[in-house]
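Write out this protein's structure.
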Amino acid sequence: MSVVPAEPVESPEPAWRQRAVERSTRAAKLRAEQRVQRFLDAAQELIAGKGTTDFTVQEVVERSRQSLRSFYQHFDGKHELLLALFEDALSTSATEMREKISAVADPLERLKVAVDLLYAASTPREGQQSPLFTDFAVQLLVSHPDQVATAHVPLLTLFTELVEGAAEAGLAVAPRPRRTASLIMQTAMFTAQAPAPGGAHPSRIGAEDVWEFCLNGIAGTARSSAGSTAGAAKANAPAATRKAAPKKAAARRPAPSKGSADGAA
């Protein structure tokens, strides 16, 4: 009987080789992340200095003190660089929001705090320019709506979790939590960015108005259901229980005085 295998057996890669490759890969990844961050920082500085996203790739390269070749190794062009900044800003916002609501116990209150924070972050501030959102994001929404949706995933994931938490606690009704979360987010963001309505007595729609609107949408059904349940319980009560009330009321009615009875007679 032959002990030679019919097919060649692959010998496992030596452990030292695996460690060397992993170490080299980690080092290369770290260097790449550092180069990317320097490009992002340079672009942020240019946006802050110019108050617009109107800058060139060459300006980013010069400010970052790196090469043009290195830039195109990490980005396809200026659009992808701005997209990276946009995604990073939204991801950071979601992380900070999680930290701020972590101390809130009530599920519905957690959602309210998140709506307030999103409204505040989306509100234009006088004297402060945010061209990444006012210029680039608006153009991106028209030209690449799929990229806008992808950039908002961290925030959408957070709001979906909050909606699900409120629904599980019986404080909200949301058959499709992700869609409900998306509607809440869009209501808060676009309302915050909208100008005050005109008229004799213009009044800006505030965060409290937005929350009240959203609350009626997700908790209104829950409240109606609770009211219907209470009404049904009352209607289904035993007949003896329902008839007891009139008798009790009659017992409380004062008896006619003797004079009255005599007069009636």
